[in-house]
Amino acid sequence: MIRAFIGVPIDPTTTAKISQVVSQLEHPLPDVRWVAEANLHFTLKFLGDVEEGHVEPINHALVDTLRPFSRFTLNAKGLGVFPDVRRARVLWVGLQGDRLAALALKVENAMVSLGFAPELRPFKPHLTIGRWRRFNGSPKKLAEALERWQGFEFGRSEVEEVILFQSVLKPEGAVYRQLNVVRLSAP
Length: 187
Known about the structure:
Elements: E1 2-9, H1 12-25, E2 33-34, E3 41-50, H2 55-66, E4 72-82, E5 90-96, H3 100-113, E6 126-131, H4 139-148, E7 153-159, E8 161-170, E9 173-183
Antiparallel strand pairs: 1-3, 1-8, 2-6, 4-5, 4-7, 5-6, 8-9
């Protein structure tokens, strides 16, 4: 079994800007476990544990579904939390892109047709940049930190490929390995 997900890489200039902001948030938000800059990506679909024999059918489904899909640009902007500032568990950077929802829906439908459970939560495109095991901080301080970065533009990324990743959990954090890359078509 391997732990797998389908995602989109983020431009290194954008991830560097995110890391700069994270360094400014580490003091006011001390209990956050931060995502390493190298691991910042947009997850289209988390697959969970997958038998190695199912990797090839997943690859074929992604190629068939995504090859005709056109490349596009996404914008990383602002900060937020899930579920809210009183019970924060995930700190995120928002993502905007005119074709983002369509891409996520195509991947979702392809994976559901292979027997993966459908996502029940509403689509909220984001990059997870940090997590709390248990939020013990001040909701007011968290709201102030979020407000400061509300409209901040972290940068743009050209969405040119979708990647099937393997996630290997290690004591120092997850390590991601590319299993397959599907290039999107030229616009």
